[in-house]
Amino acid sequence: MNKIFKRSFITLSATVALVVGCKKSFLETSNPNQLTEDKFWKNEADVKSAIASVYSPMRLPLSGYFGAFRGYQDINALGDDVLTIPGGEPSTIQVANFINDAKNGDTQDIFAKLYSAIYRANLVIENADKAGMDEALTRSYQAEAKFLRGLSFFLLASNFGDVPLKTSVAQSSDDAFLPASPEAEIYQQAIADFDASAADLPVSRPDADKGRVTQGAALAFLGKAYLYTKDYANAEVALGKLLTAPFSYELISNYEDNFTDKTEFNSESVLEWVYGPFNSQYSPWNEESGGNAMYNYRPQLTGSPASGGWFKYIPSQFLAKEFKKELRPGGSDTKFDKRMYATLMWKYSDFGETDATWYDDKSFDELWAAASTSIDRFEPVYKDFSEGKFLNKKFTSAWRNVGGADNYWSAVPSTANVEVMRFAEVLLLHAEAALMNSHSDAALTDINRIRQRAGLTAKTAADFPTTADLMKELQHQKLLELYFEQNRWNDLKRWYPTAAELKAYMAGNLKQGADKIEAKHYIFPIPAAELQTNNKLSQNALWK
Q1: Helices and strands, number each (H, E), in the chain
Q2: 101 Cβ contact partners less than 8 Å away, ≥ 6 residues apart
Q3: Calpha distance 327→311 (Å, rounded)
């Protein structure tokens, strides 16, 4: 894969932060709160550096919605497919157990990072036409900024509900702070941004620009936003466009290759954040400084102690049960769903197969023994491994089979990109929209593509007598396909729209903290720090 764009993200983000990040710099010769527009926005290089800075808050290795130490932890911890190890960071434990409040540091960080991206996107949208580029190129940069702004609003709406709608750069302290707009309006802004950006983004990018958003990403998130707002007709149309020319997305043959550095920007990739071996691997904490490391730190958080990981999660017994529900046909090269071997580690001989090893030939017994002290922190109800003992493999570096591979102090820290949108998710979103529009045949076609890649046989309409039966299959496949990809919680909220329904379902799956679920937990509270800063903003009604 091309590494140039990875490096440009670092250098350009650091450079433009001096101009658009309101930080102290030698450019600030008078009022430090005013942009030096007379020295910026002069050419395409300026605009390109500015657009790189818009990506930065969402793709920082540790912080923000997709960062390994914030959104990746917290959004995944809300689901019933994973258990969060007790004794870790208090903020994450609070979220996982539904005892978080407005002072939670993780949700505050997510909220702030998304608004940082919005602010920077607005700067590009309002100033790109000053750089003297031709009209088409200017629109392309503005479309890129609109997509990233739309993505930020989409994530804010789906996770925080009513929030301020900031679509322009504040010109005074009076308009710097806004009251919250209804969640529906935030979604509509995201939809408008995705729709507008799709018109001017390219279908593909040259190698040097891989990682920048494309028309396909805009349509995928447009369809996802329509689905979240129950506009199923438009969702099916938007997502359906990705199934035909000029797009050529396709599921890759080996599911696991989506989560390694082997085949980045493959045919399944719709949008991925770019990471690489830049700067010291030991300095991921410096946020947007020029020396910030740009490795992928998810293996450090997810991996077993035997591999140098911090071991913050264990797959739930519910997930294991779901994976074991359907065996592959007789004569297949594996007993279980192919995805299971890429997602989990277990002692194969416990289920009649030949044992495997990981991390320089460590057995599963060795991995489990190294993790047992942490596992013992769970309450007894979570230590009844009736489905068997399982550890996470997905998003670790176990696929390398190198000792200590999950440790970012090791010789081989991860440089794998992070998939934000895969074609597999597009298919499952399209299937859900089609099913809600009574297009069961189209939904089944999508689901069968997912099933067959997993080594399972295709189903027929006769296998699903009712729409509800097909919906259960869709939900089952989405659980297995998108495990640990920050989707499960928002899916559950959509499928179980009342707190009573969701609480009962989650309790049945032994989700941590399920007994504490209330209607307010469908969103995060507006962070206390934001309320203290913005006197026009009040707490979401459910959290008052």
Answers
A1: 19, 8
A2: 94, 525
A3: 29
CB of 316 within 8 A of CB of 474?
A: no
Mean pLDDT of 283-311: 90
Q: Scan for tokens 């969702």, then name that residue.
A: 235
Q: How far apart are CA 301 and CA 309, in angstroms?
A: 6
Q: Report the C-alpha gap between 477 and 71 in whole angstroms.
A: 23
Q: How far is it, in rounded angstroms, from Cα 177 to Cα 173?
A: 7
Q: Is 293 exposed, middle or buried (0-12, 13-18, 19+ CB in 10 A)?
A: buried
Question: CA 73, CA 90: separation in Å to the nearest integer?
Answer: 12
The rounded distance, in Å, linking the Cα atoms of 298 and 396 is 7
Helix (H) or strand (E) holding 75: helix 71-77
What is the phi/psi pair of residue 284, to 5°?
Answer: -85, -5
Distance CA 500, CA 520 (A): 12
SS3 272: strand
Rg of the chain's alpha carbons, rounded to an integer? 23
**Confidence band (pLDDT; 50, 70, 90) for 36?**
low
Tokens of 392: 């996470």
Q: What is the pLDDT of residues 17-27, one digit of tens each?
A: 434 433 323 22
194 close to 239: Cβ distance less than 8 angstroms: no
pTM metric for this prediction:
0.94
DSSP letters, 439-499, are -HHHHHHHHHHHHHHTTPPPP-GGG-SSHHHHHHHHHHHHHHHTTTSS-HHHHHHHHS-SH
pLDDT of residue 536: 96
What are the structure tokens assigned to 305, written together? Answer: 């102690």
CATH fold of 54-201+496-539, please?
1.25.40
Q: Are 445 and 251 in contact (CB under 8 A)?
A: no
- 203-240 pLDDT tens trace: 999 999 999 999 999 999 999 999 999 999 999 999 99
Q: Inter-axis angle of helices 105-127 and 4-20, to 10 degrees?
A: 90
What does each C-alpha distance from 460 to 197, 339, 441, 442, 463 come to in angstroms? 38, 22, 9, 12, 6
CATH 1.25.40.390 boundaries in the chain: 54-201+496-539
Q: CA 165, CA 474: separation in Å to the nearest integer?
A: 34
* Residue 458 and residue 447 in contact, taking contact as beta carbons nearer than 8 Å: no
